[in-house]
Amino acid sequence: MRFLIIFSAALAIAGCSSKGFNRGELKQQVGISKPVTTDADIAKALEKKANLPKPFKIAVYFSEPEHYGTTSPKWLWNQKDKDLIFSATESLQDQKIVSKVFPLVGSVVESEDLKGLRLAAARHGADALLIISGITDIDRYANNWSWTYAFILPTFFVNGSEVDGLFIASATMWDVRNEFLYLTAETEGQASETYAPAFGKTDKEIYSEAKQKALTDLKAQIVNMIKGQ
Q1: Which pTM does this prediction carry?
Q2: Within 10 A of 72 (CB to CB), how many other CB atoms are there?
Q3: Burial of 79 by CB count in 10 Å (0-12 exposed, 13-18 middle, 19+ buried)?
């Protein structure tokens, strides 16, 4: 049974070419959605001023991965991801820029829009709300050696298949009291492999590798931007 699955997958890949990534569409999906704005909304935004005490407390929220209906999301935030982002604040605490950083867990969030997240952060005494979001895509396609898959056996040793994974991570930090936007950051992580179908990495492994690269770069951007406040 496993052999038939591998062979079927190999033939499917052999008939495919790279579709690439639609970064514009992916970037539209990442982050916290906001309602359509008016000139009055813009005027109000311009009236907002930086209001952070020094040092200040940060609540960190990891937005749920995009998925539809009853389907499971392609990826999930794991503890390693969260530890990486929280480690970004260690130097900030040493320098007395930040006094405390804590996670905002889903069980205390009544709604995932910006106002709902600010309310949850306020209830925990946070001064700033840091929102981490992500989106991912994968592209599997054939290279010039894929024609050998017609002979079946090469699916076990010929690297005739390619896979590219992309993860886009973003961060926004808002003032809990007045919704002033302190920072926005966006990074990309990519993972690629040339493989034989019998031994290629799973989508989950590709997503995870790309996600770690994106978050590592995002961590550095967050630190630099907060230091500049």
Answers
A1: 0.77
A2: 8
A3: exposed
